[in-house]
């Protein structure tokens, strides 16, 4: 990306957004006039004004960083978005497509034909094309393959073959490598041949004749060390090595623990094949945390804020459907006790408290266990110990909060036995929540699934139905 | 940190953890034997074995990166943790304290006296001491101030004065600055005087005599450019400038948008005062996403997995108390309709469905709005447009899912009017959820609070009570 483009604070960016919105508003105004007057008398004048806004807009976009253009595109409703997209210089299309969110990318790609899409990939590296590939039509991808030189074609094939959450998916091929038996002088001369070093080149990689990684040479060492020295004597031999099939999550944790800027990726046979840089890791961390938040909120994917009503309905339906089923089951549990409720209607008012608090408590346990599992600090061997502790917390909370509610129930309905049933039901449901809160994430992990996704829905389903069953069951047994 | 320390993949780290656990287990075994036999006949032998484990453990820790020692400490129950902490070389205490989570840091600091704490801060930079300061006793901080040279004392005072979520809190003072009227040759000679460049030095900052920032000189440019050139001719003048009172969140977004490794921090008067590096940003992003997840799960802070039952109960009580109150209010809403439920007990079984789906749908809306607000792509001006769309989604979902449930209610209870009431109540509660889902985050933002925290609890409270009120109210009006 050209270095003459200004980098902005969020506020300035928002000002830009407002300026673009204003230009678009005026553009629409003029367009409306032109249409209403059917290109009559004022045609010339208005066409000029119209054009002027476009030129102004085009200049504004020209001076913006691809990520900032992406920001503007995401913040505009679809018709405006496509107007702006038309104005962006074609050779920047690829860079900008890489920056926008999935939903917005789809909307932009839909507006382009195969020729334009093929052109958009031209300035991109193999790893970047691989990032776009899932959204590109089959024929465009074939076209891309045909247009690439052999070496890059192999890289693209490799990049497209890695799983989405693997190190391979974060990797790029812009690593610089040198030999260990040359002097720093030679390395420096070699680097000077580059017009510009690839972004995030904080180290060059030292390889032997078989491309086996032997060490790393930090640029900061290169700068402060005597140029007569041999690479072998200066290079570091303790470094993080990633494998393309490693989990991206583990690589991200290594970057975080060791404050890395870049790390080598080697094939299982020890050959250097690429590198991962911190910006890819930052994007991954952000995307992962976003996916978790979306999943917790029950959205399938990032929603374009300006998506049509129908797109939003589709994005949200699966979660609502799942919840509908679990709510229906809970409802049937209550239905089974309708006789009891008819006899003692207070049960209807008290039962949601038991179910609700159980769900909350279970979610607390799950949040903590999922975090510990994700950090890799807790394994199944410790499950028993954790379960014991969570059960103790549940009993304590059950007695405290269940006790409070028991007193409240007694106070409202003047029945000691109802109070006792309330306290007992709360304690039992909290125990159930604790067991499931430890058990569900560990089970999901054993099944090879991400315990951060879906655990919360499952536990709420169990504590709802379970809470109703326990409370209404105890009440039926002891009160009626 | 010494560069000879190995950096590990998560799996190797977990193996280390198991080795430490095994050594500790053997240590406890021997200790148990020694105690039971009251230092009798075998005393000598066992003491030796005992010591041997300690030496082995000490060596293992010695060779580990501070972040990895932190990992081990977090994964151990308190007694074991303190055994390991005792074995860590004192001069590494500070670095390790910086790496552990808040809860574990507290447990370690509690085990140290003022003298040890003062010593632990010795190797640290001012910005690092400021990170520890909230957990240190008053007298230790005074001691630290007394022990620092004047310049660093000022830096520490400044670093401690910034709000937790400001750029100032992420900043360090390890920036290197040069003048614009010197050659790259001079800059290179200057850099060679450093034994090692500070971590994450991807650029040096160009300042004038008044310390005003004039440009930045990327190291990668320094390497590839002719050494005769003047800094003025090579430096970049378009760069991100951060102010210490900027929101850390905005700085993190700038790092993400522009793939930065470091950025200058300048005072409002334009004077260069420090820099922010990507590792601080990564830690911030991770901590923020963790805080949001914890808040959504209802935990006040990161919980030490091995915290005592009582500590856990305290960490979790406030969320349970809030939910107890909202559940109690919902229960009272039901209580007001006990007469209706007595007459038509089916209402008791159906009402949780209306409340639950409303909560889910509201959370979907909130998740999307909070994300758009956090990215700065949506402002209050667009609130009306968003509201209109969410209301349309709500009506659609209300008719679809409410319709399904209406049919189910009719099928279960053989009453058309009950089915109609169910559909109407669902639609109305989804409309309520949509209004609150847009309104609550925007209101919280206007009040200057983080909409990501707490919005979810609020909307669930409203859709629960609201759902019961709407459903039971409609049923009372039209069915009884």
Give an overview in words:
The structure is a homodimer of 480-residue chains. The first copy, chain A, is mostly helical. Chain A folds into three domains: 10-161, MgtE N-terminal domain-like (MgtE N-terminal fold); 177-297, CBS-domain (Roll); 309-478, SLC41 divalent cation transporters, integral membrane domain (Tetracycline Repressor, domain 2, Orthogonal Bundle), CATH 1.10.357.20. Chain A contains 22 helices and six strands. The first copy, chain A, has helices spanning 10-36, 43-62, 66-74, 78-87, 93-99, 102-110, 114-120, 126-132, 138-147, 150-161, 167-170, 184-192, 219-224, 231-234, 248-258, 278-297, 309-336, 338-343, 346-375, 383-413, 416-446, 455-478; strands at residues 177-178, 203-207, 213-218, 241-242, 262-266, 272-277. In chain A, strands 1-2-3 form a three-stranded mixed sheet. In chain A, strand 5 (262-266) and strand 6 form a beta hairpin. In chain A, helix 1 packs antiparallel against helix 2 and helix 7 (114-120) crosses helix 9 (138-147). The first copy, chain A, is globular. The N and C termini of chain A lie far apart (76 Å). Chains A and B meet through helix 1, helix 3, helix 12, helix 13 and strand 4 of A and helix 1, helix 3, helix 12, helix 13 and strand 4 of B.
């Amino acid at each position: 990306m050209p270095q003459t483009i200004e980098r902005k604070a969020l506020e300035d960016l928002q000002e830009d957004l407002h300026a673009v919105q204003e230009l678009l508003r005026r553009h629409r105004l003029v367009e409306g006039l032109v249409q209403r007057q059917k290109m009559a008398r004022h045609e010339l004048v208005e066409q000029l004004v119209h054009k002027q806004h476009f030129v102004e807009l085009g200049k504004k976009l020209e001076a913006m960083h691809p990520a900032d253009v992406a920001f503007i595109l995401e913040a505009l409703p679809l018709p405006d978005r496509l107007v702006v997209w038309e104005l962006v210089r074609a050779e920047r299309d690829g860079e900008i497509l890489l920056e926008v969110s999935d939903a917005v990318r789809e909307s932009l790609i839909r507006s382009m034909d195969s020729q334009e899409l093929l052109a958009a990939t031209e300035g991109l590296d193999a790893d970047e094309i691989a990032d776009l590939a899932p959204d590109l039509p089959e024929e465009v991808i074939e076209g891309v393959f045909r247009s690439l030189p052999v070496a890059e074609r192999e890289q693209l094939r490799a990049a497209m073959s890695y799983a989405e959450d693997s190190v391979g998916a974060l990797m790029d091929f812009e690593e610089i490598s040198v030999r260990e038996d040359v002097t720093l002088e030679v390395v420096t001369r070699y680097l000077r041949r580059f017009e510009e070093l690839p972004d995030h080149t904080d180290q060059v990689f030292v390889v032997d004749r078989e491309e086996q990684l032997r060490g790393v040479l930090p640029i900061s060492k290169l700068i402060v060390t005597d140029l007569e020295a041999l690479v072998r004597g200066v290079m570091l031999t303790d470094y993080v090595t990633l494998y393309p099939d490693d989990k991206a999550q583990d690589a991200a944790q290594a970057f975080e623990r060791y404050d890395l800027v870049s790390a080598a990726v080697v094939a299982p046979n020890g050959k250097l094949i690429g590198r991962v840089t911190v910006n890819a890791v930052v994007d991954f961390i952000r995307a992962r945390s976003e996916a978790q938040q979306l999943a917790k909120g029950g959205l399938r994917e990032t929603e374009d804020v300006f998506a049509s009503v129908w797109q939003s309905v589709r994005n949200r339906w699966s979660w609502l459907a799942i919840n509908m089923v679990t709510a229906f089951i809970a409802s049937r549990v209550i239905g089974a006790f309708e006789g009891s409720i008819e006899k003692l209607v207070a049960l209807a008012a008290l039962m949601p408290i038991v179910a609700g608090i159980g769900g909350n408590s279970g979610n607390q346990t799950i949040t903590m266990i999922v975090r510990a599992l994700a950090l890799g600090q807790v394994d199944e061997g410790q499950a028993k110990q954790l379960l014991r502790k969570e059960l103790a917390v549940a009993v304590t909370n059950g007695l405290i909060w269940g006790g409070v509610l028991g007193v409240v129930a007694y106070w409202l309905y003047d029945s000691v036995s109802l109070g006792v049933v309330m306290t007992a039901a709360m304690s039992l449901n909290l125990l159930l929540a604790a067991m499931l809160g430890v058990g569900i994430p560990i089970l999901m992990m054993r099944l090879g699934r991400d315990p951060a996704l879906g655990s919360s829905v499952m536990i709420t389903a169990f504590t709802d139905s379970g809470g109703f069953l326990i409370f209404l069951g105890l009440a039926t047994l002891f009160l009626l």
